[in-house]
Amino acid sequence: MTTMIEQDFYSTIEKSGIAEFKDRGSKFIGYAFPISSVDDFKKRLEEVKKEHPKATHHCFAYRLGTDKNVYRVSDDGEPSGTAGKPILGQIDSKMLTDTLIVVVRYYGGTLLGVPGLINAYKSTASMVLQVTPAIQKAIEANYTLTFDYTMMNDVMMIVKQTNCTVIEQEAMLFCRIVIGIPKARLDEALYRFGDIRGVEIKKDA
Fold this sequence. Notes:
The structure is a single chain. The chain has about 200 residues and is of the alpha+beta class. It has 2 domains: about 10-135, Impact, N-terminal domain (Ribosomal Protein S5, domain 2), CATH 3.30.230; about 140-205, Histidine kinase CheA-like, P2 response regulator-binding domain (Alpha-Beta Plaits, 2-Layer Sandwich). The protein has helices at about 40-50, 85-95, 115-130, 150-160, 185-195, and strands at about 10-15, 15-25, 25-35, 55-65, 70-75, 100-105, 135-140, 140-150, 165-170, 175-180, 200-205. The strands form 3 sheets. The chain has a 5-stranded antiparallel beta sheet, with helices on both faces. Mean pLDDT is about 95; it is low at about 1-5.
């Protein structure tokens, strides 16, 4: 029986990258983007299509979420399984998530055949990931804190010391902040927030 190891970190890319691959006259241009939602993906794909309106194909694959359960592939008119899957294979071989790769193809007049296409899309995806450094990010649990504004300094000090991410912040007489607490520091952070009188902490659904 294999047990799932609890991960405290996940790998993604920090910035976008671009690479080019040529085979028998066909030109393949690969774009890698960090994305955090399906809306992000749609925007990025639209940008690439606007930049290459005359391209023969705009194939892509993405994987989203720290559990890596959300993904999609598209061959965009290429023979089934020759584009999207090989692109996703490269994202998965680097164990990345929150990552989108779009490969644009300009047809060069010579048919590459199924093995040729698989190799071209795989190579283009691999090349763009070579020029796009991967980074590790902490897997976070989201919590909402509510407290009197006089506690702001104490709360923010713990946020900083435990490497939490501030997602939302409303600072009035009564403050509300939504933070992402790294899983590896969760117990420590909750214990310390619980130590401050008058701070309410609630886990986000």
